[in-house]
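To: structure subgroup
Subject: Chain for Friday's discussion

All,

I'm putting the inputs and outputs inline so they're searchable in the archive.
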Amino acid sequence: MADFDSFSHGAPYIKYVECLHTAHITLCSYRPPTEPRIARINSEAYYVYSAREFRFYKPRETGTKRDNMRSIKRAFNNLKKLINCNYGEPSHVRFVTLTYAENMTDNKRISGDFRRFYRRAVAAYGDFRYIYVKEQQARGAWHLHCFFFFDTTAPYMPNTDDNHPLRDMWGHGFVTITSVREDVNNLGNYLCAYLTDDKETGKKGSRLLNYDSGMRLYNCSRDCARPIEGTLSCEQYADMRADKSVEQLSTHDREIVLESGKKLSYRYEMYAIDV
């Protein structure tokens, strides 16, 4: 952490996102505007209210894996919260990986294949919520990492070569079933780190470049719980930190420098809220 703590006496704006057993806090060094500052006209131009003028978007390279890194990171952050909203007990969850035996590179085909698989699985095991995340192998073939969330203890799912009903339901290749470890108290971070960190080099987030800009990284069932968002006053934030049932899990700072030279500071914190 920097020697100068810009949040030592509070923050002008504190965002609060509750995800069942965890809470995500964002402290901002400025208060976001309540009114829109710009309006998009089309793919080439936008209108700036304060200056009362039209401006053009800066040209940028397209088709590269770096051109939309911000949106990819945002998608993974949203995915973390979504997973944590639906994760209660480890015994209620199954982690399932669906792999194509062929070199299946058609991203548009995935949703239909999974939808048919889901209907068969529900018929066999009863209702459950799901979240699946796409990942592309080095050879270009897609596979899916899925969480199945049950309201009670998850049913037994055979995972042997000679008795693998889920593999028959999938019908496109291999299926691996894994139980969630008891010591994983932040399942969203655990999965996203697994998908984005390079295990060979140890570089965090380096595998984000494997995802094409603009693609939908994940999908979920309609009955999945969503995060509850709001804001906190400095007093409410202090009370939360003083609560003995709350435990801080992580914190990190970030600074953004605008083209004008102005610096914006953020602090991201995560808490377990039912210790």
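Points worth raising on Friday:
The first helix runs from residue 69 to 86.
Residues 61-66 have pLDDT under 50 and may be disordered.

D.
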